[in-house]
Design brief:
single chain; alpha/beta; Rossmann fold; 6-stranded mixed sheet; 5-stranded parallel sheet; 10 helices; disordered C terminus
């Protein structure tokens, strides 16, 4: 079995695609943005390429091509190789961006939905299936809780010290509405509880950011890369959903989802409105962190 997996970005989406590596047999060639390469494990991959490097694959035959980006260049790559089976995006004979019937469960809800934007947004708000469930279904498989598979990071915990809680209030420019203004107040409450608070910051190297997360016992963040990395590292996480669906995320038994009561009203909005965040109180988030703290290490949680 020889598979070409095309998933370029965003980084969180790349990380949540890695469970596929646990079920794809044989050799897997992954094409991803250069920024994602430090996160991906080398062991199960036959090759890890950038999109420009993947131009050398044109005309090569793969038993399976799985094309998971709503991106014309990615779809062009999928169309440029010989595929025993293709699932996901490709270029039609007219040069238009298309997707296979087998991948419609996911792409019918996307920006390239053949059902139109209004119907796609409605499906997205009503969807109750996780991303992993939907991409596994493209392969005709059932998702059974297969874990993420990323490059490892060492985890160390000093016996007897207070729990370290990592907080990340950042969000990328694509989704500014994911930012929650309650993190400073939450940090003060957690410090008053006697917990050790670490505020994540921008790091020059993704490996260093991954190490920062690995040093924490518990993480509080939005629906972002931080959430996916924390889950991949086996860390209990409280994630805030302000404008994206909590149902799309598989929690692996270590994720507490806290959704704004207004998330459906602002579902997948790209604006800068603060209403969804303001509707989510600090007291509610603090209570969820305290509950998860007690589950993580009761003796270390005052």
């Amino acid at each position: 079995m020889n598979t070409l997996l095309i998933k370029l970005g965003a980084l969180g989406d790349v990380v949540r695609t890695t469970p596929l590596l646990r079920v794809l047999p044989g050799k897997v060639t992954w094409v991803a943005d250069r920024a994602a390469h430090p996160l991906l494990p080398r062991e199960p991959l036959d090759a890890l390429l950038t999109l420009p490097e993947a131009s050398a694959l044109r005309g090569r035959r793969f038993d399976l091509v799985l094309s998971l980006d709503e991106d014309r260049e990615a779809a062009a790559l999928a169309s440029s190789v010989e595929a025993g089976r293709l699932e996901g995006t490709y270029l039609g004979s007219d040069g238009g961006l298309r997707y296979t019937d087998g991948s419609a469960g996911w792409f019918d809800m996307s920006l390239i939905s053949r059902l139109g934007r209004e119907r796609a947004d409605s499906l997205k708000r009503r969807n109750g299936r996780t991303y992993q469930d939907l991409v596994f279904a493209m392969l005709g498989r059932r998702f059974s809780g297969e874990e993420y598979w990323i490059a490892p990071a060492a985890r160390r915990r000093e016996p007897g010290r207070p729990l370290r809680v990592g907080l990340d209030g950042r969000a990328g420019p694509r989704w500014p509405m994911k930012r929650w203004g309650g993190f400073p107040a939450l940090a003060r409450r957690l410090e008053a509880d006697g917990l050790r608070v670490q505020l994540f910051r921008q790091r020059a190297r993704l490996q260093d950011f991954r190490a920062d997360i690995a040093a924490c016992d518990l993480v509080v963040c939005g629906d972002t890369l931080t959430m996916h990395l924390a889950l991949a590292l086996g860390i209990r996480t409280v994630a805030l959903f302000l404008c994206t669906s909590p149902y799309e995320i598989h929690g692996y038994g270590r994720l507490v989802k806290v959704a704004s009561p207004l998330w459906k009203d602002y579902a997948y909005a790209r604006g800068r409105g603060r209403e969804p965040g303001e509707a989510l109180g600090v007291a509610e988030v603090h209570a969820q962190v305290r509950r998860l703290c007690a589950r993580t290490a009761p003796a270390a949680c005052p």
